[in-house]
Input
Amino acid sequence: MTIEENIKNAKDGVALIGEVIKAAGNNPQVKEAGQELGKTALTVTKAINNVLLPLAMLNFAFDKARKYYSEQFAIDMAQKAARIPPEEIIEPKASIAGPAIQGLAFCHEEPDLKEMYLNLLASAMDGRNANLAHPAFVEIIKQLNTTEAQLIGAILKSQTGLPIVELRLNTGVKGYHILLRHLLDLKSQSTQQSAEDEGMPAIVDNWIRLGLVTVTYQAQLLDEANYSWVESRPEYRRFWDTPHLDGESVVFQKGIIVKTAFGDQFAKAVGL
Output
């Protein structure tokens, strides 16, 4: 089978998802399985097999996706759904379950994105907080890469916002030129030393575009110590050490990056 045929089969499967879930909603056996979900690992797996796996197996002709859904998906979902009381299990909305399963098929080998999809599906099945699972969240996960998925958690967990700066070349009476936008104090997880990512300004712009955060350089955190890291950053030192014309100087504008209400809800729905 060609790649084009695989893609066509995938799209055809996606188109059927909504109808399958609607049919499942009227099936007493599926409802019975849903009621049993959470009682034991066995009944959790049974419910997942009856409700979600049919959607998954409709979806993809890609070998890796088919292997994941046939061998591992039920186990992963059982672990996520086990924390839900059986009386709180509900059928996930088609607008969330279908696209989430589709997205998961393409990134189940990327742990951070995979976790987001699985947690979103679990939230959609939990009657206590199913309203947190917004259909738009599937599209947000699709528009994140692994690096973004790893970084966004720290920002969305912050209650007060985090420091961010913009590096500028001050030209005196002529104003300034922006040298670098959206500089954060990134550190290597292994060494805790400063880590550079030249794609970070675009990553922050993407988070803003998706409505997860806002960034302003018209306000700053009150404690000046929050910005003590800036002058030791390699990006700042590199610009500082570059020769400049008389009257020019490298400065930084303090700012703050803050999660939006939409971003806060996203974090809760995907388990951040």
